[in-house]
Every structure is written in C-alpha cells, then in structure tokens.
Amino acid sequence: IGDFGSCTVPQIQFGVGFDNRKETSFEPVDQTSYPHGSAQNIDIITQFMCDQLVNACGADATAKATCASGQSAADTATAKTGAQADKFNAVFGIQTNFAAVPAVSDQGVTLASSAAATDAASTTAAATDAATATAAASSSATAATSTAAASDIGNFGSCSVPQIQFGVGFDGRRETSFEPVDQTSFNHGSADNIAVITDFICNTLTNSCGADATAKATCATAQTAAAAGLAQTGDQADKFNAVFGINTQFAQMIVTVTISQNNSPLPTNAFTVTIGGSASHSAITTSAISSTSTTATPTTSSSISSSNLQTFTNALGNIPAPPVFDTGNGEFIVQGDSTFNNKQNALDRSCDVQHNDCGNAANADHDASFTVNDCDSQEAQCKTNAQT
Question: What is the pLDDT of residues 57-114, one digit of tens each?
Fold first, then answer.
C-alpha cells in the first residue's frame, strides 16, 4: 500500500455528532495527520486526505495510488452511508463495519440503511482482497516492521483499528505524551506512560466495541510490543501501531513549538520548531513557552521568521485564519496545524482551518450572527486573497 511518510495510514469514520452535527457524516480518524472537519459528502474527505499525502506527508507514489483507489472504492457504495467509509478503509487493509450504522438526516431522523447488508458483505470481501494484495508490503518506520492484514488482526466491532500518537501539547501538556488517535472509539486523555493508554484501549475492545477474540489477542500483543520500546519515546507508539499494520514514525520525529513572548497563542517574536529525536536517545527534554526548545541531539533545527504570511484579516465570530510561517528550509507551517512543501498549499490550509472553526461555531451557536453559508463565502474570499 506504500509509504505514507510522516502521516498515518488513511482511515475514515462515519457517525453522528462530528462537529456537533445532528446528521451522520464522515471525517478522518487521525486529525493530526489529516486535520479536516466532518462532511456529509465523503469525496470532500477523501480528496483532502489524498491531497495531504502529496502536500504535507511526503508519501511515495504507491501510497498516492492506493489513496486514489480508496477514493474510487468509496464512490461505488451508496452515498452518505457508512459503507462508503468501509470501502475506503478496506483498500488500506483496515476492516470496519460502519455500514451497520444507520444514516441520520440533518433533521435528526434515522433513515433505513439500504447499504447495511450488501455493502457490509462486499466490504468484508474487499478488505480480504486488500489484505491479500498487501500482505507482502513492509513498513518503512524504524520501529514498525510488520504489516498486518485486516483478516489477521480481527474485527474491532463498532470501533476503529487502535492507533496511538505521540507528541507535545496533548491536553495542554508541556511534555511529550501518548493518546489514542480516535477519540470517538477510544475516549481517553493523554498519559506519559503508554501502558495507561494501551490498557484502556484493550479494555474498551471488550467493554464497549464488541470486538472479536482475534482483535483482543492482537491488542494484547501490541501492549507487549509497546512495552518493549524505549519508555516515554515515540518508539513505543510505533511498536504498538505496527502490530495492527499501521506504519508510523514517532521514534524519528519530535516537534516542539516554542513561543518566545509570554503565553500568547500568536507569536510576535521569532519561535523555533525543532525536529529530531531517535529511539536510541535515553532522554528527551522539551521546554515550552520559553526562549529555546531542545530535543536530544536533534537532526534538524530551523528558525522561523515571525512574519505572518497569511494576510487575510476577515474573521467571522472573531475566528481568524491561523498564521502561516516560512520555516526557512523549504517548508511552511500553519500555526497549530500542519507543515507544507509550498506556500500556496499552506495558505489554503489556513483558510480551511478557519472555515472549519467558523462552521463549528455557526452550528454550535444558533443565535450567531453568521451562518455556515457565510463561512463558505469567507473561505472563498480567503483563498482568493491567498492567490494574490
């Protein structure tokens, strides 16, 4: 299925309540690799994820081709049903059963799912085919050396395939920590000790998800694998994820954003992003809200100019487009979001983030002086401004 670079294997979930919606919709499971709000049209999500592989992840040609196949597969299922997510996920060897989730209209009315029987069966077959086709694929992550087929790792019931992420800033922490990627299936905060997270995930498979015995055994194996990694490093997350056939590189990359002026969320002075780290390092030190940022023997260090490249100033609901900065090494970073290989894509993503936050505010506050349509118009203006 390819090498997804700095991102996780794409996976989509389907359900009610995303971004405070009454209706069922789709969204990426991993909001770190694929930060995008929900949409009723799965094409919006699949297109963003495949674009992200090109613009930000550094994925190889095989991964991009696999994503295109996932897009095509999703379009063969009944529109606006969970079967579309199942078919997309199956191309990556991930077995889900969102076809069993009834579709709900924007009025909160539960609709009969015509896809539940036929699409669920065909998706299971697709997952088996994808697993057979990718059984020989190897993981490119230093710590992740196995690629598991969906049929080998079990059925996770109503939950997604377990996956853990590692980084700075979860739950407002200054230090690096672990947390589940999918907070819908595995709703748990961050922890310094990965065992806290793995125990919770494996218990949830039994208590809430309705997972089968194979899935539970796979999770137990992943717990053991994580414990074998270097404690409190991304290597442990990589080893856990690898048991499920998910290639991550948290052992190789640690990102720390340090703001040099008090606790302001928007930097007025220069700040530094340090990328580095390795599973061989026995200690990692991060310093938040200070003048410096350090990791053990970082492999790359780049100073970022404080000049905000995002010049769009309209802000419905006082929600601005997040600032964009030039890293000085050929990449552009969207504050609080992703890194991109060119300025235009970074500016467009800044507009997307503002649009998502604006839409969430409009949906959540029925007395707001603006609507989702107003947010759509503002996004168009933002992207037009980005091209000037």
Answer: 989 999 999 999 999 999 999 998 999 999 999 999 888 888 888 888 766 677 754 4
Tokens of 2: 């390819």
Whether residue 287 has pLDDT greater than 60: no
Spatial separation of the C-alpha atoms in residues 251 and 239, rounded to whole Å: 9
Q: Which domain holds residue 296?
A: 253-306
Task: Return the C-alpha torsion angle 191, 194, 198, 199, nearest 10.
Answer: -70
Q: Are residues 58 and 113 in the same domain?
A: yes
Mean pLDDT of 268-282: 34
Q: How far is the CA of 260 from the CAs of 72, 263, 288, 384, in angstroms?
A: 46, 8, 9, 32
CA distances from 297 to 6, 252, 341 (A): 20, 12, 25
Question: Of 306, 326, 346, which marks where a domain is finished?
Answer: 306
- Judgement on whether residues 84 and 186 belong to the same structural domain of the protein: no
Provide the total of helices (H) and of strands (E) in the chain, helices listed first: 10, 10
Pick the residue with more confidence: 7 or 127?
A: 7
Tell me, yes or no, whether 326 and 294 share the same domain: no
Assigned domain for 2 exists: no
pLDDT of residue 337: 56
Number of domains in the chain: 4
Residues 6 or more apart whose Cβ sits within 8 Å of residue 134: 1, 93, 147, 149
Average pLDDT over residues 226-255: 82
Q: Does residue 53 sit in the same domain as residue 25?
A: yes
288 and 265, same domain (yes or no): yes
User: Above pLDDT 90, what percent of the chain?
Assistant: 24
What is the token pair recorded at 100?
Answer: 């069993």
